[in-house]
Amino acid sequence: MQEVDLEGANEKDTANDSPHSVQEAGLKPDHSKTFRHRDGLGRIYEGPPDDRFLNPLDGTVKELVVQCTDALYRGPKKSTYKRTFIRNVSPITLQIATWPISHIYDEPRSRSKKLWDNIRWAVGIPGLAATGTIVNHGNYDPFPYRYWGSCKVSRNMLEEGTPSSGANLYAARNNRILEPKYLCIVGDEQFGRRKLVSEWKNDLENQSHHGKCPEYLFIAYTTEHFNHSSGPDMQALHAIATTATRSAGLIAYWVGASCMQRENVEDDVFRISDVVRGAHSMAIVIGPGARDVQGQSSTKSMLQHWGERLWTLPEALLISSKRPISVYRRGYQEPLLVPKNQFAAMAWADSTMTRELIDHYEGNLTLTRLELVTIAIQCLFARQRGEYLPGDHSYALMGLLRIRPKIDATDTQFQAFARLSLANDSDMLLERLMCISPAHPAQHWSSVSDAYGINVWDIYPACQIAGVCSDDTVLVDGAFGATIHWDKFQKVANTRRKRSWKRLAIQAMLHGAPHYFVIGMVLFRAGWDIRKHWALFFESIGIILIATACCVFVSSPYLTRLLYGGRFWGTQAFLFGFEGYLDIETIESQIFGHRMGRLRWSLYGSSLSRHRKNDFGESIGVDPTTDPLTRQKAEHALTNTISDSMRIFTLVDTNTMTVTMFEAVKPPVVVLLCGAEGGMQRAIACSYDWTTGTCYRETVLRMETPVLEKMSRVERFRFGMNRAS
């Protein structure tokens, strides 16, 4: 990105500080790169990678202009989008009509101030109100999205084009192995000899086993202690493994250094879990590593170093609990025997969570599918990556599940997990992770830490993952969505379920007064031109109409407030956004022309929302900046010079008449309702990367469930949890 000359920009903006000015983006896109976008109607746009959104009026991709507070407009220019002032969009006539009563106070007024009030009242006489019109049948503006690309892997095989070898989801199969391919057979030699199990079974000397695989010891170790490229390390590892096998009364052992084929690592890596399941028992071999001080490190500390390795978790979970786990230390003869149910506290830092997994596999504690996968993925991603493939965390998890997709070496961590999630019934864990509101901006996609403090199983998804795409994205179907308007507020039409007789009379007087006046003048003038016995009648009617019109004119500001004041039964649904913070009275004045108490702060709309109970025990939303920490964030955002840091935004929902303040890096241009939780909808607020057609999660808001009635379904959309840096 190229930075503009801030001093020159400041001079330009100072000279053109009009309500209609648009400030250029402080960070310019790289114009040497050109990208292509195809909208829902097939129209093509090409241009540099600037910030854009899908216009709900015509479906085209247009430049994003964000209205912001005056302080932000004149502050540091470090945004990637254009900015403009917040404009008052209420009808001019309504602004004029409410101007006389916009500063009425309850306390006594001085004579000079009363005189000024009278002058304002006189100016407001011509004000006859007008409001916006109903559009989209009163519904939110839709999100006119269409995805034209293809998926790396689809849930439905019919949507595949010509998939690469092993890429299709239907390559998933229950490909468990009943026995290992290789074992190290212990004989009279110093070390065990690697041998094909099939050859061993066909050997005439082993016919007494009736074709069964010999019982074997599973050897667990870490390359930190035993380096594969070191001859002495490998000799020591096999020597200890041979000793442990003989001590267990067995004739074979399995060790990854010898029994896994490097040329077939993609097939062998997920078979480790089956090898562990079939093992007689497990022996862990440890030794001083690079982090261990010679002669000073304890067995427990070296065992904890072993426990940091990714594959140690499924190894310890799946091994039989009938026999204790043997821990052999290099240079020591006698092993340390650890019962499986006590192993977590000794080997793992996250012993609380891993103990739950051990108890589940021992049958002492039954976890649901969702709980099992959720806890397992948190434990696995807390460990270091293995030495095989980028998707090792998911491949390690694969060993705990029934259906195993064929491994693709080109998969990233996210793609491997998404592929696994599609193949197995994991209670829509990935869909639930989509709806998680990250507790901090750098949170990993696999984390279940939610800013609202809920558990992942409290979320009920309302969408479905249809496929896995490139760049750590997925194709999502079934969500409801609505476009957020950032460039300006719009006039909001309102409806009432029932008009009172008083309001009907006021409306007739206000809208009929000009006609009354004209008709009265015509009748009064006509009285001069007709015979005497009709003149008095016409003049009387004319005077009455003129007098009535004049009374309405004089009282029009007051009548206007009576007519358009109060609460709305229904309003045109819009989502308006602006950058920064304003008090709710100012926001309402900008949209409706006056402070009438119609808007309210959302109680639980975002992590910044605040509420309290009043004297009657009712929950009411309060200004988020009453919280000192939130106020500090809002003030810091005014002088923020880091382009990819969190900013303060405000969302106005004219359907529920709520205002929500939230944090995000970029202004989200659409809300996608993908799930429900705690009696409210999880609304994923997304920015739009038009260069790839991807909706990226910026934050997750909570919206009232009735908003679903005024939202439309969104076509299958490409979704990413984290925008690539």
TrEMBL record:
Region: Disordered; residue ranges are 1-35
Q: Which residues cross the membrane?
A: 504-528, 534-559
Provide the alphabetized UniProt keywords. Membrane, Transmembrane, Transmembrane helix
Name of the protein in its database record:
Heterokaryon incompatibility domain-containing protein
Q: Which organism is it from?
A: Hyaloscypha hepaticicola
Species classification: Eukaryota, Fungi, Dikarya, Ascomycota, Pezizomycotina
